């Protein structure tokens, strides 16, 4: 069926969209164990950048599975498809000029590399939210780790399924050794400088 699909380009260029948004779009990808603080960090980053005037949107694992990916389970194949969809949605949002913050366990390095390839390496910022399993379990307000220990939740990352730590992330924050505020501002110091668009006046004919 794919041979009958004919993609086309918009009359509005990517450069025009960036100038309209006055920012360089980036995907800030937060990866780490359940309970490591990814969602808390993502929410605070979104709020901070919004108050700074950036056009930003957050995508989170639980929210995405409530809509876009609600038809998917937690098999290896479904997890890969879940992240592929997220990557494609993030690309569309980046192409529209937005900055996107994603909070996903994304345990497989191969899947994270696939997302980098989808959105483009120059727009992908991988942040490893590192936190020990022990601390994540202590924070487990949802009771997921307890259920995983009992075998109620199979293939649970960090307990019965592996997590591949990023080999060379743009940044690693240790949320079991520092406050959320300290982790957040480390990310801000890395990301904010590259989000600013080098202003230049360009006139386009219609």
TrEMBL record:
<dbReference type="InterPro" id="IPR059117">
    <property type="entry name" value="APS_kinase_dom"/>
</dbReference>
<dbReference type="GO" id="GO:0005524">
    <property type="term" value="F:ATP binding"/>
</dbReference>
<dbReference type="GO" id="GO:0070814">
    <property type="term" value="P:hydrogen sulfide biosynthetic process"/>
</dbReference>
<keyword id="KW-0418">Kinase</keyword>
<keyword id="KW-0597">Phosphoprotein</keyword>
<dbReference type="InterPro" id="IPR050512">
    <property type="entry name" value="Sulf_AdTrans/APS_kinase"/>
</dbReference>
<dbReference type="GO" id="GO:0004020">
    <property type="term" value="F:adenylylsulfate kinase activity"/>
</dbReference>
<feature type="domain" description="APS kinase">
    <location>
        <begin position="26"/>
        <end position="173"/>
    </location>
</feature>
<dbReference type="GO" id="GO:0010134">
    <property type="term" value="P:sulfate assimilation via adenylyl sulfate reduction"/>
</dbReference>
<dbReference type="InterPro" id="IPR027417">
    <property type="entry name" value="P-loop_NTPase"/>
</dbReference>
<feature type="binding site">
    <location>
        <begin position="32"/>
        <end position="39"/>
    </location>
    <ligand>
        <name>ATP</name>
    </ligand>
</feature>
<dbReference type="GO" id="GO:0005737">
    <property type="term" value="C:cytoplasm"/>
</dbReference>
<comment type="pathway">
    <text>Sulfur metabolism; hydrogen sulfide biosynthesis; sulfite from sulfate: step 2/3.</text>
</comment>
<dbReference type="Pfam" id="PF01583">
    <property type="entry name" value="APS_kinase"/>
</dbReference>
<keyword id="KW-0808">Transferase</keyword>
<feature type="active site" description="Phosphoserine intermediate">
    <location>
        <position position="106"/>
    </location>
</feature>
<dbReference type="InterPro" id="IPR002891">
    <property type="entry name" value="APS"/>
</dbReference>
<dbReference type="GO" id="GO:0019379">
    <property type="term" value="P:sulfate assimilation, phosphoadenylyl sulfate reduction by phosphoadenylyl-sulfate reductase (thioredoxin)"/>
</dbReference>
<dbReference type="GO" id="GO:0004781">
    <property type="term" value="F:sulfate adenylyltransferase (ATP) activity"/>
</dbReference>
<keyword id="KW-0067">ATP-binding</keyword>
<keyword id="KW-0547">Nucleotide-binding</keyword>
<comment type="function">
    <text>Catalyzes the synthesis of activated sulfate.</text>
</comment>
<comment type="similarity">
    <text>Belongs to the APS kinase family.</text>
</comment>
<protein>
    <recommendedName>
        <fullName>Adenylyl-sulfate kinase</fullName>
        <ecNumber>2.7.1.25</ecNumber>
    </recommendedName>
</protein>
